[in-house]
Write a structure and sequence with these properties.
By secondary structure, the protein is an alpha/beta fold. The protein contains 17 helices and 24 strands. Among the domains are: 1-54 and 501-543, Urease, subunit C, domain 1 (Roll); 74-195, Diaminopimelate Epimerase, Chain A, domain 1 (Roll), CATH 3.10.310. The protein is 30% helix and 21% strand. Helix 2 packs across helix 7 (203-219), helix 7 (203-219) crosses helix 8 (238-250) and helix 10 (325-337) crosses helix 11 (349-365).
């Protein structure tokens, strides 16, 4: 034996033996689970024994949907999260440029602003004229927290060749002022008019970014990540991104297990990818090709989530579907027939109707058991859509941390009459729908304790609303933990190798500072990760 952890309270997530005291590890795998006596009796040559002193040990966390490379790339940008006003955004950026000594002409990126959090001045999107107050010499691009809207200054628009005569994109639009001049606000696919001009990182730069991002995830107890990376950085060169991951794997620098959710939003990109031989499941226990990822719509915050009726607080729009039905059908059918799993971002109910229609058509033409196609986010549902999950055996990738922001805006966006069937996570679980929990980081933090807290309390991180928002949809601690462990493993076809503390499975585990099953639920968000074990070794957070 290489390692024994003893004297713990071990939540195994294994229904046949839910609790244990000790676990033994050898060659990156779990070889024995049981009482202290059972495990210690089986020891041979033990390199190390760790006394957990009664601490809670759980399986390594699996974030079922996030954007690792985008998060890592954003660490180099102006952090605009929590900005109180447009003036605050301007001040933060001026400080960033000065502190970083940004060379003249270099692109300046900012991430994470959300006008709904402004407490000073107007609650509106910033525009080119606001950003011009920072500089007209640096090209500046700010990305909203939802990643469905970007704002650019005049210099960035000049370099991109954007004028009043630039045609609108099909699935999105950019705003204009009363004179027909672009305001610098680009929604959904029109973002590409600006972002394609931002310089592309090299493979070595990508590798450095990923290593930093994985290290931060490990500190939160995350040992597996399902990540949408292919269009996360300028250039959208998935060959370089795959090369970076493969080189890190060869160099032994993969610090979390990665299941790549392959964003390929055109038939040309999907066909090219398939022609190179890539399929769901290709790879090893450190890096695998996952599903075809598609964006079905936008976000509630930006009012680009596609709804079946107009927004209550903006009746001029019903959101922006990312595809026409025919195009979505074709992409889904192509991927399905090519043995690819499919995961479609759908926040609005209209987007979900379209996604399920496409999946159902593909399954009728080519029936396939255990396809595990699914919906990412799955927020604005109704009885029909909830039934479709069961009927089509689709998985739901949910993000409990979304409640932190969304409960403040949902009713004003969609109307009080639709609230009862939104964020119906407990209903999904109770009816047997497979659910994997995640964060959508960097839209929200990937801190799993925050996610579990919001799942079981239905409150935001400030403890509001009192009594919880839609308390009937709260999860139990066990259900939330399952969603971040076995639930996530199921969505990637890996429930047989990880997600629980069982003999024969990968030795990915987490020690928590407090017992989340026993403490008041409101205190779960304050629980710390004390140790993370990845592939049978304790992760060193000091390097």
């Amino acid at each position: 034996m290489e390692l024994i952890l003893k004297n713990g309270k071990i939540a195994t997530m294994n229904a046949s033996r839910p609790w244990a005291e000790a676990v033994a590890v050898k060659n990156g795998k779990i070889v024995k689970v049981g009482t202290n006596d059972e495990v210690l009796a089986s020891k041979e040559n033990v390199a190390k024994v760790i006394d957990l002193k009664g601490k809670l040990l759980v399986p390594g966390f699996n974030d079922s949907h996030m954007h690792l490379l985008m998060y890592s790339y954003n660490l180099q940008s102006v952090n605009l999260a929590g900005s109180k006003s447009i003036d605050d955004i301007i001040d933060r950026t001026n400080k960033f440029i000065k502190e970083k000594n940004i060379p003249a002409g270099k692109w300046v990126l900012g991430i994470g602003w959300n006008q709904d959090y402004f407490v000073e001045g107007e609650k509106r999107f910033p525009n080119r004229y606001d950003l011009d107050k920072i500089s007209t010499e640096y090209p500046i691009v700010f990305i909203r927290a939802c990643y469905h809207v970007v704002v650019a200054n005049s210099k960035a628009m000049e370099l991109a060749g954007i004028t009043k005569d630039t045609p609108q994109a099909k699935e999105g639009h950019f705003d204009k002022d009363e004179n027909g001049e672009p305001l610098g606000i680009f929604r959904e696919k029109t973002q590409g008019l600006i972002t394609k001009w931002i310089p592309e990182p090299t493979v070595e730069e990508i590798k450095k970014m990923l290593v930093e991002g994985m290290k931060n995830a490990s500190k939160c107890g995350i040992t597996s990540i399902q990540t949408d990376d292919f269009e996360a950085i300028p250039g959208k060169n998935y060959d370089n991104i795959l090369k970076a991951y493969n080189e890190l794997r060869e160099e032994g620098k993969i610090q979390v297990r990665v299941y790549e959710q392959c964003l390929l939003p055109s038939m040309e990109r999907l066909t090219g990818f398939l022609n190179k031989g890539y399929r769901t499941g290709d790879g090893d226990e450190f890096f695998k090709i996952g599903p075809l990822k598609l964006l079905g719509d936008g976000s509630l915050g930006a009012r680009t989530a596609a709804l079946t009726r107009p927004y209550s607080d903006a009746p001029e729009t019903s959101g922006i579907p990312a595809f026409k039905q025919e195009k979505l059908d074709a992409l889904v059918e192509k991927a399905h027939n090519s043995e690819m799993q499919i995961a479609i971002h759908c926040i609005g109910d209209k987007a979900m109707y379209m996604a399920f229609e496409a999946i159902e058509k593909a399954l009728k033409k080519n029936p396939r058991k255990d396809h595990r196609h699914g919906i990412v986010h799955a927020q604005i549902t109704d009885n029909y859509l909830l039934n479709k999950f069961k009927e089509l055996d689709a998985v739901a990738y949910i993000q409990p941390i979304f409640l932190d922001y969304d409960w403040h805006i949902v009713e004003s966006r969609i109307g009080s009459d639709k609230i009862g069937k939104t964020y119906n996570w407990r209903t999904m679980i109770d009816t047997g729908i497979h659910v994997g929990c995640g964060s959508d980081c960097p839209v929200e933090s990937f801190d799993v304790m925050n996610g579990i807290y919001e799942a079981v309390t239905s409150k935001d991180l400030k403890g509001q609303p009192e009594g919880g928002w839609m308390p009937n949809q709260r999860l139990t601690v066990e259900q939330a933990l399952y969603g971040f462990t076995m639930g996530g493993a199921y969505t990637s076809f890996e429930e047989g190798t990880k997600g629980s503390i069982e003999e024969g499975k990968l030795a990915d585990m987490v020690v928590l500072s407090r017992d989340i099953f026993q403490i008041p639920k409101d205190e779960i968000k304050d629980v710390q990760v004390e140790m993370t074990f990845f592939n049978g070794e304790m992760v060193d957070f000091t390097h």
